[in-house]
Amino acid sequence: MSTWPERRERRRGSNRGRRWPKRVALTLLTLVLCVVAYAIGLYFWGDSRLRHTDAFDTYADRPRADPGADWLLIGSDSRSELTPEQRKELHVGNDDVLNTDTIMLLHYGKSGPYLVSLPRDSYVDIPGHGQNKINAAYALGGAKLLTRTVEQATGLNLDHYAEVNFLGFVDVVDSLDGVTICVAKGGLHDAKSGADFDAGCQRMNGTQALAYVRARYSDPLGDLGRVKRQRQLVSAVADKALSPAVVVPPWRLIPWLGASFDALTVDDGTGVRDLAQMGLRMKDLADGEGVTTTVPVGEETSVDGVGDVVEWDSAKAEQLFAALRDDTPIPASDLK
User: Fold this and answer.
1) What gap in Å lies between CA 203 and CA 208, rounded to an integer?
2) CA dihedral 80, 81, 83, 87 (to 10 degrees)
3) Of 100-104, 141-145, 214-218, where does mean pLDDT reach its minimum?
4) Cα angle for residues 156, 158, 162 (degrees, 5° grid)
5) Strand 114-117 with 100-108, pairing
6) CA nearest 123: which of 149, 89, 96, 90?
7) pLDDT one-digit tens code per residue, 56-94
């Protein structure tokens, strides 16, 4: 027959055994609530930092809405926020004309994702201004005229618009402690952009990455070579930004998010949730899903009063844009 102290000890052990699952459940619930609160806090913090612009115009012959999501992504060459020292360091000169160095279409839905470059020298009709290089639309009428020009040239109804400038781009790359880029055989050396890279894979900081994507005078493919490097860099940024090493630790995630939100200007209807969806599709592209390509081009020529321009292959370009409009796979013959 057991003594009273022995019975008391057995009861204590039994109570501890019953309390252990409750403690684990309470700890897990606390962790979940902390994660949810952290995510909600990040969402509202990011939404408060986003800059918006009225990027879309309403006009009579605007293309009808199509399946999937279509983004217009641009990199503006605005120098207004740069000091003289920064302009010198970034090799961007002192020209204050506002153009777009990068113009890309991102489509995703049942098909895709697809990232399509529109060369800045593409010769298209700019509503109200006749034919000109596509990047002139931004200088002539800002985001609204650029989105309308792209919609009428492609037949797409754009859903979202996102813009980043020189300094913002540099800050985003630096917030990731640089990105790894593999430079093609022969390297890339361009005094005007500041690019000075030997062949091979190497880590680039923000200033170096900007020089890499802006170089075109030393590239035998000119602007067509530059747009390939732009897509390469976008994929590299997405790949590193959405890796566990950046997304999980708050001390890595928050600086990157802060730099990204500060760098971006989006249309009035775009928020953090849309940007997260876009970022995931960019990560898919970096992981080898979907396709990155350039709109099919015909010939490069010179136009009086305009300069050197790129003309699209109208038949192949229409096939590509029709696939995007219908959310169907891009024809293999249109991929470059």
Assistant:
1) 9
2) -70
3) 214-218
4) 140
5) antiparallel
6) 149
7) 988 888 998 888 999 999 987 655 555 556 555 555 555
3-class state of residue 183 by DSSP? strand
| C-alpha dist (Å) from residue 228 to 134, 165, 213, 297, 326 | 18, 19, 9, 14, 25
Instruction: Please provide residue 199's backbone torsions phi and psi, each rounded to the nearest 5 degrees.
Output: -65, 150
Residues 246-284 pLDDT 10s: 887 888 888 888 888 888 899 999 998 899 899 889 989
DSSP state string for 64-99: PP-SSEEEEEEEE---TT--HHHHHHHT--S-----
pTM of this prediction exceeds 0.90: no
Tokens 């109200």, located at residue: 128
Q: Which of 2, 150, 162, 127 is nearest to 63 (CA)?
A: 150
Closest CA to 151 of 268, 325, 282: 325
First to last CA, the chain: 87
Distance CA 104, CA 114 (A): 10
Separation in Å, CA 218 to CA 10, 199, 273, 336: 83, 14, 40, 21
pLDDT tens, position by position, 18-53: 565 666 665 655 555 445 554 565 555 667 778 899
Section 119-135 average pLDDT: 92
The DSSP result for 148-164, as a single string, is HHHHHHH-----EEEEE
Query: Residue 223 in contact with residue 122, Cβ under 8 Å?
Result: no
122, 309 Cβ separation under 8 angstroms:
yes
> 203 with 251: CB under 8 angstroms?
no
HSE (side-chain half, CA atoms, 13 Å) at 61: 7
* Residue pair 77/93 in contact by the 8 Å Cβ criterion: no
- What residues contact residue 3 under an 8 Å CB cut-off, 6+ apart? none
d(CA 114, CA 62): 22
CA distances from 133 to 103, 143, 150, 175, 291 (A): 12, 15, 12, 33, 25
How far CA 94 is from CA of 40, 53, 76, 83, in Å, comes to 42, 25, 14, 10
